[in-house]
């Protein structure tokens, strides 16, 4: 069979209205491609597809992309933000009589919605589902829904071969799952994602060795959930002359000096940390036990002292947030010397406990999924208006990425090494291209 695998990343038309000019929008998109990683879904599906089939994989960024070739079946992976575009592409294939399978975060959350645009929907992780689905299709017995019924054995996660250089930052996944299960996190959508699973070390190391480029990113919820495993991993990739970024929890990074030492020796350039809030009251309400606000500064300093950068995300719109949270966060970020801060809007992705709660409370303002992008406000906050939340996040990000603040971060990064400097420069430049337009909230 001739199989087309698509991952839809097109930013909807309204994306361009978030910029002062289309040239800035395209500039942001191009820099983002170079500095961020793509989904691992397509390479994994390609790896578990029986060898007798022909696979064509493609990431779509332009709605005018030509897809006129004939295929036996098309698999499309999509997130919530890009689901409308994915549905459009799916409908076009089906009108041509080509079978379509939808999967990914959004179809897993809303399978019956996705089924309106597909012959079949995959719900959950697909490694063990996809080969059976293809066999069913060949036998004329394709089911409407394919549910992940058990946790995928990490031994069955295939080794991806990075046979040729890519325009994108390569991604590797050493582990799956996060036991924290924050109310707002998309990890809660996928069944069994609460269960932490680690892949065999030799397979992960083999995968990393095959990456042609020097830089990659770990696509794990957190590499601090099982520090013993991570330490073994870092020891295993030390000496490969690779540079990488990874996610980690603030508590472990502040307590485990050996982990930081091994990370630096292995080639870690920086840690991406979900600080979420500088209010301990808010953190406690979230149930995120890994975060202690009074330890934030110490953790950032320790990471800096080891020669690694810190990218920190802050979410606004929690029920405990009041108007003072914005200026307090600005002050904290300026004092902490976070290298790449990001102010995001609390977003109730469908399928998450947050979405279910806000839906029950009748606080969801729109179900236009293209607005579910961490930038626009799609629900009614508790202690401020949607407009106030949006305007203040816009103000915070504008201050984060003012020319003086960018210059200060970039200048400070020079003394920490070449890779540190280039990473800080590239990521600050990417973030600085964002300018938000309040007319797009609803």
Map the helices and strands:
Layout: E1 2-8, H1 22-35, H2 41-48, E2 54-60, E3 73-77, H3 83-95, E4 99-103, H4 105-109, H5 111-115, E5 120-123, H6 130-138, E6 145-147, E7 171-172, E8 175-176, E9 197-198, H7 201-209, E10 215-218, H8 227-237, E11 243-247, H9 250-255, H10 257-266, E12 268-276, H11 280-286, H12 296-305, E13 309-316, H13 325-336, E14 340-345, H14 353-360, H15 386-400, H16 403-414, H17 418-432
Parallel strand pairs: 1-2, 1-3, 3-4, 4-5, 5-6, 7-10, 10-11, 11-12, 12-13, 13-14
Antiparallel strand pairs: 8-9
Helix pairs in contact: 1-17, 7-8, 8-10, 13-15, 16-17
* CATH classification, class level of the largest domain: Alpha Beta
Can you count the beta strands?
A: 14
Count of runs of 4 or more consecutive helical residues: 17
Instruction: Enumerate the strands of the largest sheet in spatial order, edge to edge or round the barrel.
Output: 2-1-3-4-5-6
What is the fold-level CATH name, i.e. the topology of the largest domain? pyruvate-formate lyase- activating enzyme
How much is the average pLDDT? 89
Q: How many distinct folded domains?
A: 2
**Alpha-carbon Rg, integer:** 22 Å
Strand residue content:
15-25%
Shape: globular
Please identify the structural class as seen in this structure: alpha/beta
Q: Helix fraction?
A: 25-40%
Low-confidence segments, ≥5 residues, pLDDT <50? 12-20, 435-442
- Which CATH-level-2 architecture of the largest domain? Alpha-Beta Horseshoe
């Amino acid at each position: 069979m001739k199989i087309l695998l698509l991952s839809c990343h097109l930013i909807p038309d309204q994306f361009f209205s978030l910029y002062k000019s289309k040239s800035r929008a395209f500039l942001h998109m191009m820099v983002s491609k170079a500095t961020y990683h793509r989904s691992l879904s397509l390479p994994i599906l390609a790896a578990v597809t029986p060898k007798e089939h022909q696979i064509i994989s493609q990431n779509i960024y332009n709605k005018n992309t030509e897809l006129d070739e004939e295929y036996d079946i098309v698999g499309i992976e999509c997130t919530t933000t890009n689901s409308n575009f994915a549905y459009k592409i799916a409908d076009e294939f089906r009108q041509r009589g080509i079978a379509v399978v939808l999967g990914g975060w959004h179809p897993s959350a809303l399978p019956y919605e996705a089924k309106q645009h597909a012959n079949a929907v995959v719900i959950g992780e697909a490694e063990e589902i996809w080969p059976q689905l293809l066999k069913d299709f060949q036998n004329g017995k394709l089911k409407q829904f394919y549910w992940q019924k058990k946790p995928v054995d990490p031994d069955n996660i295939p080794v991806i071969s990075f046979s040729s250089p890519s325009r994108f930052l390569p991604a590797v996944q050493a582990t799956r799952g996060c036991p924290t299960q924050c109310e707002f996190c998309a990890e809660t959508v996928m069944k069994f994602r609460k269960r932490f699973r680690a892949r065999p070390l030799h397979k992960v190391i083999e995968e990393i060795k095959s990456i042609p480029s020097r830089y990659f990113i770990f696509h794990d919820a957190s590499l601090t959930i099982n520090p013993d495993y991570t330490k073994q991993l870092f020891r295993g990739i030390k000496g490969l002359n690779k540079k990488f970024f990874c996610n980690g929890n603030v508590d472990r990074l502040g307590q485990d000096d050996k982990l930081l030492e091994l990370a630096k020796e292995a080639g870690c350039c920086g840690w991406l940390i979900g600080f979420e809030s500088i209010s301990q009251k808010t953190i406690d309400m979230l149930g995120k036990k890994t975060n202690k606000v009074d330890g934030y500064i110490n953790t950032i300093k320790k990471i800096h002292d080891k020669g690694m950068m810190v990218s920190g995300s802050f979410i606004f719109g929690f029920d405990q947030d009041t108007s003072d949270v914005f200026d307090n966060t600005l002050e904290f970020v300026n004092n902490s010397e976070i290298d790449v801060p990001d102010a995001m809007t609390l977003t109730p992705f469908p399928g998450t406990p947050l979405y279910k709660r806000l839906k029950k409370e009748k606080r969801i303002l729109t179900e236009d999924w293209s607005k579910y992008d961490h930038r626009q406000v799609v629900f009614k906050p508790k202690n401020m208006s949607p407009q106030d939340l949006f305007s203040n996040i816009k103000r915070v990000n504008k201050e984060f990425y003012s020319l003086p603040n960018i210059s200060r971060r970039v200048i400070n990064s020079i003394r920490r090494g070449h890779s540190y400097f280039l990473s800080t420069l590239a990521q600050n430049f990417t973030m600085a291209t964002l300018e938000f337009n309040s007319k797009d909230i609803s």
